[in-house]
Write a structure and sequence with these properties.
Length: 135
């Protein structure tokens, strides 16, 4: 049985993911706010090889401050954000917590870009918060 499963709002895009979660955390950067339409993104990183994707996504590529190019895959039918990747760090893929069915697996380990967080968002003091992206 796959560890994580999920799908977009319309169901055209789905995934099954096996293997261990590499890391997971909340990102409060403006890019994540804009692309999700939410206050922040909860990203679940897994090895690309462990994630099997079914259905067609559309890819948006953009550059960030570090000079790296990031990609965002979304369902062209319903617009749900499905996967993110950093072309400067190949091999890992970021799933979006909201599309994952196994909600009990969502346990963010950190907050990044805490300097950009909305005033209405209260950070969990039990996990580290970084003003930007560490290291
Ligand atoms: Zn869809
Ligand atoms: Zn972000």
């Amino acid at each position: 049985m796959p560890k994580l499963t999920g799908n977009c709002l319309c169901g055209n895009v789905s995934f099954k993911a096996d293997g261990d979660i590499m890391m997971q955390g909340n990102c409060h950067c403006l890019d994540c706010q804009q692309v999700t339409g939410a206050a922040y993104a909860t990203l679940v990183f897994m090895s690309e090889n462990d994630v099997k994707i079914t259905g067609e996504t559309k890819k948006f590529e953009h550059k960030v401050d570090s000079g790296n190019s990031l990609t965002k895959d979304f369902c062209p039918n319903c617009g749900s954000q499905m996967f993110g990747a950093n072309l400067g760090r190949p091999g890992s893929i970021a799933l979006r917590a909201g599309s994952i069915n196994e909600k009990a697996e969502i346990k963010p380990q950190f907050n990044v870009y805490a300097s950009r967080k909305l005033d209405c968002v209260i950070l969990d003091n039990n996990i580290p918060a970084f003003d930007k992206m560490p290291g």
